[in-house]
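In this supplementary section we document a worked example of the pipeline. Step one takes a protein sequence of length 261 as its only input; no multiple sequence alignment statistics are reported here. Step two produces a three-dimensional model, which step three serialises into structure tokens for compact storage. The input and output of this example are shown verbatim.
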Amino acid sequence: MPILEVSHIRKYFGQTEVLKDISFSLEQGQALSIIGSSGSGKTTLLRCLNFLERPDEGSIRVNGETLFDAGGQKALSESEIRKRRLHFGLVFQAFHLFPQYTALENVMLAKELLAKELPSYKEDKKRIQAEIREQAKELLSQMGLSDRMENYPHQLSGGQCQRVAIARALALSPDILCFDEPTSALDPELTGEVLKVMRELADQNTTMIIVTHEMAFARDVASQVIFMDDGYILEQGDPHQVLEHPKEERTRQFLIRFTNG
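The serialised model returned by step three reads:
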């Protein structure tokens, strides 16, 4: 059974249809790269998966559980949305770290907020907080940031901020880790730092969806590649087929423009 099944997703902003009948599936441990021009719907798709946007049609299933079904689901409460969102960890293009918190506090925050909803939190507060802190330290160490835990975002490079963001996304142990062009705001050296971490996650069989313009990374790491154009999935297949021998003329034109640009 696929870990993720996305079926016939459509999304409208006003009269404009930005996602047009999107369907795909993803197996446990696979990495899916999504490529395409700006405005093709890539980020909107990730936001729909993470419940930051609500699809107008279609369904989303994770591990056989229906998280969303536009055809037969009542409106979800905020608490229900938060619960479903836990299946996905999202790493944004621009980090979105809280500037008033240290790197360690940024990684701890979401899990602390969830822990406060537990009936046993008040009486078990010290133990729970200690466990959350220890896990956050382990994740930051995994990101190569053991000496930067007490730094604030403004004291970190862009690559370091993005690695904090990855640690934060991993803190809640999501089923699927989603990246929205995580290196587009970084210079080449810092891009290499972040891609190294992502390669390590792929080597650990982390299930990932990656919106990216890093074609070499997609070629080397992805299990499958989707090319989106004007809200459609125009082409889908293994990296060699899509990136080296695309079937669609628009895919070929995109790859030529990107390579020459």
